[in-house]
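User: quick one - fold this with flavin-adenine dinucleotide bound?
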Amino acid sequence: MSNLHQFEVVVVGAGGAGLMAGLYASRTAKTAVISKLYPTRSHTGAAQGGVGAALGNLEEDHPEWHTFDTVKGSDYLGDQDAIEFMCEEAVPAIYELEHMGLPFDRTPDGKISQRPFGGHTNNVTGKPVRRACHAADRTGHMILQTLYQQCLKNNVTFYDEFQVLDLIMSNGKAAGVIAVELATGELHTFHAKAVIIATGGHGRIWEITSNAYAYTGDGPAITLRHGLPLEDMEFFQFHPTGIYKLGILITEGVRGEGGVLLNGKGERFMERYAPKVKDLASRDVISRAMYMEMAEGRGINGQNYLYLDVRPETVNKYAALDGRTNPDGSPYRVTGEQILAKLPDIVDFCRVYLGVDPVTQPMPVQPTAHYTMGGIPTNKFGEALADEKGTVVPGLYAAGEVACVSVHGANRLGTNSLLDLVVFGKYAGLRAAEYAKGADFPPLPADAGDYIQEHLSRLRSGTGKENAFDIAREMKKVMFDHVGIFRVEAGMQQALQKIRELQERYKHVSVTDTGKIFNTELISAWELGNLLDLAEVITVCCLNRTESRGGHARDDYPKRDDVNWLKHTMIWKRNGQLQIGYKPVTITKYQPKERTY
Amino acid sequence: MEITLKVFRYNPEKDAKWHYETYVIEGQPTDRVLDLLEYVKGYIDGTLSFRRSCAHGVCGSDAMRINGRNRLACKALVRDVGTKITVEPLIGLKVIKDLIVDMEPFFDNYKKILPFLINETPPPADGKERYQSPEDRAIFDDTTKCILCACCTTSCPSFWANDDYVGPAAIVNAHRFIFDSRDEAANERLKVLNSMFGVYRCHTIFNCTEACPREIQVTKAIGEVKMAILRGKIK
Ligand SMILES: Cc1cc2nc3c(=O)[nH]c(=O)nc-3n(C[C@H](O)[C@H](O)[C@H](O)COP(=O)(O)OP(=O)(O)OC[C@H]3O[C@@H](n4cnc5c(N)ncnc54)[C@H](O)[C@@H]3O)c2cc1C
Ligand code: FES
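Assistant: Sure. Structure tokens for the protein plus flavin-adenine dinucleotide:
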């Protein structure tokens, strides 16, 4: 085997989760972090609004409240032991980030500043609570930078612009990965005792998305091919406020600062759907309300978009109506300069991409495909699971958006993903290093690189009668139209048929670039195969779950059905066939209740 | 509308020398240059190579020269750059293929300025945050925005002349730590920047400030670092 490397722990991905895992694993084990992008290009850098922790810096708050809000936000599908663990670990995790140098915004007395976010409440009054710790509207950028800087400080070994194409399994244990060095086209074998997958999400399956080009689901597509399960793949979050047509995210922080959603009649419609917290209800509730407004003809000029309005006069009007106050009890009021200071990137995006100035004009928005709740099943230590009974796959770990712990259940609360990365990234790193210390290198199977070699040569030698871009476009459209915010049997059946047809057509794609150096055409074609495989899995899971819960909303089964569906979906691909099983939800303190905001 | 896209092409495995290729395509005023490049790659020539990820100006992948000016392709709209568009790789870094340049020297310069918080004083005993006033936080706010895209550094004639010069991006990142009230290693960084490859290579040409897609006041930050060196200390 040429280009053979040996590390005790290999981390795949250098976003928030991968960097945290790398930082912790490298303290005791020989570790490499492999990433298809330069670490600082990872999608964590796009996160805007904040990271949640009940620090209570501006008002009373408790990890138990954060736990309850997360359970409720998950539409009771989250595992309560893991949620409690995350919300308690949140507090020390944020302080750790601060000690690492993260430049959080500050309160007047110098503490970490916090803002309200959707679904995060004072559990006594039911009113929004300030829990999202933020650095302007580039909190993710600051987390990514800070963690990368700490990795440099601690001499973590990186393989930048190396793309992992396959996992190596040896007698049921993880034994390493195969990666292509993009600059040379050479394949490298990384022999390892433990592999941590931290490759992020797969929002590129949908037409309108806030997600980066790199969000192609490489991690879960690879583990699926190895016969390992995926969990809760029907749950994908559509964020209420993407820039119309482009999908670029406008953070919920805009509504946290007092912005409101308005329909074509100028009504603040969220009053009708969530009387208590209104525009700060959880995302699934708002996206669905927006869909209803547009379906009933109340979009702006009857079109498929609504307004998000953060003009000071609007904010001040509704803040007065809501009786919103500052921490010192004075009425809440904002000026244009304050909006600009708190949301500089949002203002910039709107100016650049829309030619709209949000300080003086409302922003046209529509729901955008945003976040992968499902993924590689793990326990709360990041150990990947082989089945519904919780059996661990020796040596395999997952953390971040790619993993399904599950702390987000059917719907993730804003600020809980960045939190998930730092908490579970850390534990996956610690566990993997600990495991590696007590384990030998599993033998490398002789055929380790064969599958991927074959797959790549197939992509190079297809008949060429199909165009990869057309296939991608058609996939995105059918998934957005039929496996999006609202779902019905017939539409999803049609989508499934279409996806399977596209999978067939994909076999005829031929890559024209015959070179080795930065063959981005070949890599994109490989990524498209991952997206198609996951689109199929998602659609099958959506058809299977005959209820509405969190991000999975069906017109034909509009109610949550706890009797039959209070359980996680597990899906495997065995002998080319998808098979579904179930795993119970862990309920500790909070019995499922009807969800109102 | 019809758009004429002229693109620098170089494939080291095939071409002895670089050349330009011109594509005439249909587009909208609201299209990003990145969308046009994607279109060419998808339907005209799959071998065209460039980096990209976030597509909205926050990851720093797709810095390139667009009509002679360093920009992010995902943040340059047709309505801003016109319908005759020339796209070339950044200057001062080796071209690997088409619009992809070797970023290693750029990141090496970044690493030279110790880009991480150094504070040997133990954090508060209660485990909570170190305090910092909003005023102290504001001093270095601008330079925390850097996405390491290299637009500034590769627009700088001093960097073109000598790539040992650490360049504006590295100084911006040094500024971010030097002026952070929690950091204790300002003097070490100033030593690096006071060397022959440090701040004095900057001749205040302002290309960097104009090039920054994050609108960081790069020249101002460099000026503040120069002042700090002159005064021998920060506060
Ligand atoms: C616009 C936007 C705003 C958001 N705002 C918030 C917010 O305010 N608060 C919040 O909590 N969450 C927010 N989120 C969600 C959150 O940012 C993401 O869920 C999270 O950052 C994902 O982190 P990660 O470490 O799992 O993945 P990423 O940061 O995406 O990292 C994935 C890594 O995997 C690597 N990789 C992928 N495939 C391969 C492969 N095949 N081989 C090698 N490497 C590979 C990539 O190079 C990258 O380094 C937001 C998301 C978006 C898109
Ligand atoms: S693609 Fe991320 S900055 Fe342009």
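One thing worth noting: The two ends of chain A are 58 Å apart (CA to CA).
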